[in-house]
Amino acid sequence: FEMGFKDILILVTLCMITNSTCCEEQKVVACLRQNMTCLKSLCSCTSNNFNSGIAYSHVTCLEVTEVPKEIPNEVYTITITGNNITTIKSGDFNNMPNLNTLSLNDNKIEVIEPGSFANITGSNLNIHLENNSLSRITSNMFRDISLVAL
């Protein structure tokens, strides 16, 4: 049967691969009719049903201290949760025209540098920042962005 974009994205979102199965270099596993290619700290679910070929990137509980540079620009959803990231740097999420959901929950984020989300070209970006350590929010930090939870 045919699945639409939202159906596939929901299925891919349900594919939560743990450290023991995901983060072995170059390991490929089945992921709900998707291909999961694991490169060091980054996991990407890919699908031939998308023009760009990349639907989702997921980094969880790997104790990374910064946003991985290996995230492809074509992703729709990025989930980076349960890590040790303290700063979101300007440029961490540049040139991602398809990005519509960014989940940064349960990290140790204290600082979001000015302009960190300014160069995301998608117009409907939802950001999740629950359970972090932010102490200051500037008035233009989330301009033109839908902040779902802080």
TrEMBL record:
Annotated InterPro entries: Leu-rich_rpt (IPR001611), Leu-rich_rpt_typical-subtyp (IPR003591), LRR_dom_sf (IPR032675), SLRP (IPR050333)
A single Gene Ontology CC term: extracellular space
Sorted UniProt keywords: Leucine-rich repeat, Repeat, Signal
Superkingdom as given in the UniProt entry: Eukaryota
Gene3D superfamilies: Ribonuclease Inhibitor
Signal peptide: 1-23
Protein name stated in the entry: LRRNT domain-containing protein
Annotated organism of origin: Mytilus galloprovincialis (Mediterranean mussel)
Lineage, opening ranks: Eukaryota, Metazoa, Spiralia, Lophotrochozoa, Mollusca
